[in-house]
Amino acid sequence: xxxxxxxxxxxxxLPYVRHPExxxxxxxxxxxxxxxxxxxxxxxxxxxxIRDEIDFRLTFSVTPPLASMLGDSLLQSRYVRKLEQLMExxxxxxxxxxxxxxxxxxxRMYSKLLARIYDAFVNRxxxxxxxxxxxFQDLGKIEIIASAATHGYLPLLSVNEPxxxxxxxxxxxxxxxxxxxxxxxxWLPECGYYPGVDRLLCEQGIRFTxxxxxxxxxxxxxxxxxxxxxxxxxxxxxxxxxxxxxxxxVWSSVEGYPGDFHYREFYRDIGFDLDLDYIRPYIHPxxxxxxxxxxxxxxxxxxxxxxxxxxxxxERKAExxxxxxxxxxxxxxxxxxxxxxxxxxxxxxxxxxLFGHWWFEGPRWLDYLIRKIALDQDTVRxxxxxxxxxxxxxxxxxxxxxxxxGDEGFSKVWLNSRNHWIDPHLHAAAESMSELATxxxxxxxxxxxxxxxxAARELLLAQxxxxxxxxxxxxxxxxxxxxxxxxxLRFLRLKEQISCGRISKEWxxxxxxxxxxxxxxxxxxxxxxxxxEVMGSNSDIRL
Amino acid sequence: xxxxxxxxxxLTAVFKSAGAFIGTFRSIRHARLRRVDPTAPxxxxxxxxxxxxxxxxxxxxxxxxxxxxxxxxxxxxxxxQAEKQMGAVRSAVQPVLRFDEVVSERTATTIETKxxxxxxxxxxxxxxxxxxxxDKVYNVTLGLKSKxxxxxxxxxxxxxxxxxxxxARQEPLDSQAACTEHGTQVEAIxxxxxxxxxxxxxxxxxxxxxxxxxxTAARPTATEALTQKLAEFRAIREAASKQLGVSLPMFxxxxxxxxxxxxxxxxxxxxSEPLPEPPxxxxxxxxxxxxxxxxxxxxxxxxxxxxxxx
Lengths: 543, 310
Hints:
heterodimer; A: alpha/beta; ten-stranded mixed sheet; 10 strands; B: alpha+beta; four-stranded antiparallel sheet; three-stranded antiparallel sheet; 9 helices
């Protein structure tokens, strides 16, 4: 009999980076890399576990922008082309490394891995990984939770409640369309919680959410069991807290597992290492070098000199680290169980993209961990958060503390001297949206309602937390700035056209097909003051 | 002459009409050719965002327990009106952010007894403010201040700054525990009868026992899975060896080199690394979690300073 539970939560998210206007888009590559390195490898692990009849439970958040891209036929076909190119490159690599016997087995390893990924993506999941997510959820192995419409960082949007309500409601509606069921849980983007947002989750029938550790430990009343039992917000929505030990053991770039010297080095890629003429067909047409995903080195040490990757060593390390993680959980749960009046729950949320993309061996670690939990011990059992709540529906009632999982634990990442220019525009646009919706509510002109909904889509896309983060980190600042401005400018132009009664049908059609997220949702609804009363809960009614 | 002039007028009119017709035809044709293809993709709009929205507005956003960000736009009319109210010379007036502390939000009283002012430059239109205390509720007003007067320009949303540590325990342990076990959450759940409980998963215990008894051999443990994976890598190396006609090393175990010993994790002796100390008493669980908490541990951490492209 288990003494407590471990809930692994994988947050799968990418910003909406669909660019039909370019034949080749660097940003779409983020999405393609995540499919090749994270989502499909995780599915392959799940398939193996199911084949081997190893029981497991995981919680997944699949955000609406990611789900929309996974279901998009343009991106699906572009991905297949990309994967075929990559397979061609590994074939070339096998030939190129003929005289390098240390390298060739690595090229073969990638070739084999990509063939498996291609087979799964094209043949088993019919190019749409949402089929995979639905499949594993229907089997009861994973629980998928909803998230905000475009990953808006809600604490900073909260000065305009309709904006937050729209992020939540559209996220939940999109989930229902994609997964054909109501979500129990909701992933707050960046774990960004503020007192009161739970009420908006409650409006949408959400049962639980997940907070960073201090959101729970610093609640208005002292939590009886720390983060090892959830709190119930006054609205009735339950807030689970992140276990700090699980975070540190895996995540820390200094002491975390992914930094082990035997693991694969992320920052050495043949896209950068090999001769330009050779690699030219597999990088950006403007000869901008990119990661291909073919990486031959291990982390080796703190110096720049990198040794070749040895898969056998990395594999052993993944198994050792899985054992180490489990030992820590067994000890932790046993000691917590001895002082708690209920079974402790350890909640371990991670970005899904850590597994495979940043940490190549992450999916292997997860596989070993799940097998060890199922077969090697009896103290810890995997659980979803819904299953835990079924067992413990009564929880301490108090209000959690504002918090996020960003640097320093609050809002600094999304609001600082580099990106503070964004919020005034987002807030002004949200206010304009309410004014427009109220002025034109019930307008029978189809063009007006289309324009209003598109304006709301542009606003949602501008609200993505990803842009402010990229500006802070300085990684892709130019792109993030352009995306924010472009969506806001499109919003303003739509506003002007609606107000003047001169809507450009052609331009509207263009941006509808371009910024085509949520085509089947009345995005505008919550910006109209009386919308909730008028519309009731019928989500299919449009303007 | 008159006839010739009339004929000329008629011909001119005909030519004009024909020209107009041709012009119209051309412009229609041209318009057709120019018509934007509604399916043609657009590039990102790269204009400038408006400097102002022509409205008086003001918001304060919480950055962290000790820092907030205020931004504003004041129309010239509103400013002029406020300046008139002040009745003082402009040089004697200081724009300030006035923070009125709401003493107890939880008891719903709004007795604003404590306040402080932060001088700002009105033209800056935004200001980061560092605060001495955390866990406070404020109403913030942007206003003009002179020696003896304060005139409000605009009031903000109410803000609440977060705590920096857990609250102290207020009740004896036993009564708190009883509250937890028989708390009001049951009532809260009853308020939401529409919650659909997730479909029951196939009984975990049942499945586990049945698979343990019947399928143990078919369920590879982590050790068996590792052996299998290592065999796969061995096969890859053997295939490569065969093709290349050389003998490749098989890398069964990581090396016990000085480099590996420097590795923080290599090799991990299962019991050699300090594992989390068990919490000694129930009362300390929250403090233990708080002490171990390290902020900002997520993918955000990995990406900062490590551009996607090198």
